[in-house]
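Bug: token stream looks shifted between consecutive jobs. Job 1:
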Amino acid sequence: VQLQESGGGSVQSGGSLRLSCALSKPHYSSYCMGWLRQAPGKEREGIASIDFDARTKYRDSVRDRFTISQDNAKKSLYLQMNNLKSEDTAMYYCATLGPYSGDGCSFARQPHLLGRGTQVTVSS
């Protein structure tokens, strides 16, 4: 599977962006998908995950502002980001997170595959 992100850009604080990730083929029904980000000078962190049954998990810092979704028929993963803050400025990556298991598709997993990323810049 290859992943290609799009939809990043520059926005003012409080604004919204919708990131998309195109998959070269549908992922296996047991696989988890997610979004990660890396801000300048910081470690990469997982922020959201989704399983094939559309159950989702979020990092506290983005919960209630970001929404992860998928369209397996269209081979796409999405991240709707609302009420953006300056601290959301980062490179955003979509990722495969491996098969569903006991942690319920945790967003904190090490990614198996990553896209090249799309830059999000939020100005205050």
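Job 2, same session, no restart:
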Amino acid sequence: QVQLVESGGGLVQAGGSLRLSCAASGSAFSIDLMGWYRQVPGKQRELVATITNDGKTSFADSVQGRFTISMDKPKNTVYLHMNSLKPEDTADYYCVVNSRRTPLSDIILTSWGQGTQVTVSS
């Protein structure tokens, strides 16, 4: 099983920046993809950004050009760099990891972090 520990949320003014971190740990595993979702109370959780083990990234249209995502493979850590933050970015942000027990395993395990709150004031 993979455990995820998130950090970096907080309160920031509009136009500011924050960096979220998510470190994965556990028994032997091979990461396919790491990413971030966000959720506002009463709304569905939405995908923010993902990065694959070979470095391919994808972003929601709403954050394209403002957010970047990176992965530190030796540390099994993913970072979400959020710039030019807007009040509508306010949400709980959740880390997600798709992993396998071995690189050749057909079984993909999806693990979620506990969430970290981001509040952007206007």
